[in-house]
Amino acid sequence: MNPADERLWATLVHIGGIFFSFIPALVGYLVLKDRGPFVREHTATALNFQITLAIAYAVGWVLIVVGIGLLILLAVWVVNIVFSIIAAVKANAGQPYVYPLAIKFVS
């Protein structure tokens, strides 16, 4: 895969997380991980971030009973949008990006 295609796929995986949670990152990782180190790094990073957010969303839903859950869900949603856009811009520029606070499940 040429570098332009790697950047494109890495960008799409990051943006896809905004709309479809961890599914684009998981599919991207499984399909593209052997196509180049750049796309592998970005798909793994996006997958780790989206899994971390899925856990945060689950905690938010559980804490709705207490009353703080809605604020947590809103915060996680905003964090997802902001950091996914930052990661997509970095990927499109051909630069590495590490999401803050993402738990490393996949390397």
UniProtKB/TrEMBL annotation:
The keyword Protein biosynthesis does not apply. It is found in: Membrane. The chain crosses the membrane at residues 12-32, 70-89. Its main location: membrane. It is a multi-pass membrane protein. It holds the Pfam family MamF_MmsF. It comes from the Bacteria. The keyword Membrane applies. InterPro entries: MamF_MmsF (IPR019109). Keywords: Membrane, Transmembrane, Transmembrane helix. This is DUF4870 domain-containing protein. It comes from Leifsonia tongyongensis.
